[in-house]
Design a protein that fits this description.
The protein is α+β, with helices and mostly antiparallel strands. It has two domains: 4-100, Orthogonal Bundle (Helix Hairpins), CATH 1.10.287.40; 117-422, Bira Bifunctional Protein, Domain 2 (BirA Bifunctional Protein, domain 2, 2-Layer Sandwich). 39% of the residues lie in helices and 20% in strands. The chain contains twelve helices and 18 strands. The chain has helices at residues 4-9, 11-20, 27-63, 69-100, 139-146, 151-157, 168-187, 201-206, 232-236, 294-312, 358-363, 388-398, and strands at 121-126, 149-150, 164-165, 191-193, 198-199, 219-220, 225-227, 243-245, 251-260, 279-289, 316-320, 332-340, 345-354, 366-368, 376-377, 379-387, 406-407, 421-422. The strands form five sheets. An eight-stranded mixed β-sheet has the order 1-11-12-13-16-10-9-4. Helix 3 packs antiparallel against helix 4 (69-100). 36% of the residues are buried. It binds one RNA strand through residues 37-38, 41-42, 44-46, 48-49, 51-52, 54-60, 62-63, 68-69, 71-76, 78-79, 243, 372-376.
Length: 423
RNA sequence: GGAGAGGUGGCUGAGUGGUCGAAGGCGCUCGCCUGGAAAGUGAGUGAACGGCUUAUCCCCGUUCCAAGGGUUCAAAUCCCUUCCUCUCCGCCA
């Protein structure tokens, strides 16, 4: 959520920002409603002031043994008017709040302006895609013969976009999880968290998944609970409603969790294999920072995600998303894309974003500056560190051998019981 | 799920209809005291929204004692609903 005052005083800038993001938003209605809110508030507050003074006077008269009937009647009438106006204000505020929650974050000035993914800017590449002496297979043609991936049974147990991992497939999934968690906790200073995977509506709204993106989420119909689409949600909300001390910052959290996404609107895309699943595992990183440090923290967090791929020896590139391709709550986003030989292109495996104070304002997370000033909103960052399912795919495809076996990267072997080759 | 107790400021803890944003204590900030520190001592110490304003300073107003609703001229205090915590019982990985 943006600062309402700022929006009010910078409507031109907001309109331009919405345009850059390809966003359709009724800004005129918002401005109009905001003015009406203040106007009505002024009216009702004046009446309340009168009523408060009157009530006090009634008290004093009664104590003095005087008759206060006329005054009480007058205050009763004011009370009725107040109630009426209070309801009006509440209605306006609810509508205004709902609108405000649907305005996307403002991109940082360093973000390239562009319409879609074609305007994203490549920042750097690492590793050289391997030159195969044979035709590299897609992961589904590797996984099924090896007996480590079962797509049919995934569908049978749930529906399409679910996969069963078996034997070495499941083992590698678990190895990757432990490898990434150990790296981030022991080398990068993150505190490991095991959070709830079901969260309530307030939590889901804090990070911006609600109210706008309910269609993308799985919901528990009998409870006010939703399945998380990423551990960003519980991790970032860990300090919702709190005022932290500056000395407590920055906070580094990471967690392994399954993630659940309905993938509404992606019918037909990446239907084969397990590139795009309704359920997938991920190690997520979250940072809570002061505004001054948040962009340095973004660079560092992106490096932490890259380190995973570097150690596994998988080629990747880092791109900076343009204004039109960025997510709702992000002010700046780096995507990390891994090389997939079967597709002959780079595919997203991690997304690292600085949300600045966008989520903090929704959650109510502030910090008290060390110099004792007023509490300020923190900046929040999140990044995949990294998506495990896609990492498994990338590993399989990049490390495949001509006979269909897969060499396990050395860095992973200690986590896979010494397994060197899956065959 | 059943029975009971309770949810007040950064913490602790008073407050059962009126001048209570809320006593006392702790903590914190500033000052005094001290060679310095402790102890002692004096003062201060919440947030949101709106108005005023060059100003996120002041000042003024409104709101906030788990959340939402109700009663009343007036609610932290009375009533209802929900949520949460604790104790006991039941159930359970």
């Amino acid at each position: 959520m943006l600062d309402m005052k700022w929006v009010r005083e910078h409507t031109d800038e907001v309109a331009a920002m919405l345009l850059n993001r390809n966003y359709n938003f009724p800004l005129d209605k918002f401005v109009e409603l905001d003015a009406l809110r203040r106007e009505t508030l002024l009216e009702v507050e004046a009446l309340k002031e009168k009523r408060n003074a009157g009530a006090k006077e009634v008290g004093m008269k009664k104590k003095a043994g005087e008759n206060a009937d006329a005054l009480m009647e007058e205050m009763r009438l004011i009370g009725e008017k107040v109630k009426e106006l209070d309801e009006k204000v509440a209605g306006i505020e609810a509508e205004l709040q709902d609108l405000a929650m649907r305005i996307p974050n403002r991109p940082h000035s360093s973000v390239p302006v562009g319409a879609d993914e074609n305007d994203n800017v490549e920042i750097r590449r690492h590793g050289t895609p391997r030159r195969f002496t044979f035709e590299p297979k897609p992961h589904w043609d590797l996984g099924e013969p090896l007996g480590i991936m079962d797509f049919e049974r995934g569908v049978q147990l749930a529906e399409s976009r679910f996969t069963v991992l078996k034997g070495a497939g499941a083992r590698l999934e678990r190895a990757l999880m432990n490898f990434m968690l150990d790296l981030h906790t022991t080398q990068h200073g993150f505190t490991e968290i095991a959070p709830p995977i079901l969260v309530n509506t307030t939590t889901m709204s804090g990070t911006g998944q609600l109210p706008k993106f309910a269609e993308d989420l799985y919901r528990c119909a009998n409870d006010d609970l939703w399945l998380i689409p990423t551990a960003e949600v519980p991790l970032t909300n860990l300090h919702a409603g709190e005022i932290l001390n500056e000395s407590d910052l920055p906070k580094y959290y990471c967690a392994f969790t399954p993630c659940f996404r309905r993938e509404a609107g992606s019918y037909g895309r990446d239907m084969r294999g397990m590139l795009r699943q309704h359920q997938f595992d991920k190690v997520e990183m979250v940072k809570i920072s002061t505004p001054e440090k948040s962009y340095d923290e973004l660079e560092h967090m992106t490096n932490c995600a890259e380190k995973v791929l570097q150690l596994l020896g998988i080629p990747y590139r880092v791109i900076c998303l343009c204004t039109g391709d960025m997510g709702f709550g992000a002010a700046k986003t780096y995507d990390i894309e891994v090389w997939l030989p079967s597709q002959n292109c780079y595919r997203e495996i991690s997304s690292c974003s600085n949300c600045e104070d966008f989520q903090a304002r929704r959650m109510g997370t502030k910090y008290r500056p060390a110099n004792g000033g007023k509490p300020r909103f923190v900046h929040t960052l999140n990044g995949s560190g990294i998506a495990i399912g896609r990492c498994l795919i990338a590993l399989m495809e990049n490390y495949q051998n001509e006979d269909g076996s897969i060499t396990v990267p050395e860095a992973l072997r200690p986590y896979a019981g010494g397994l060197e080759v899956v065959k």
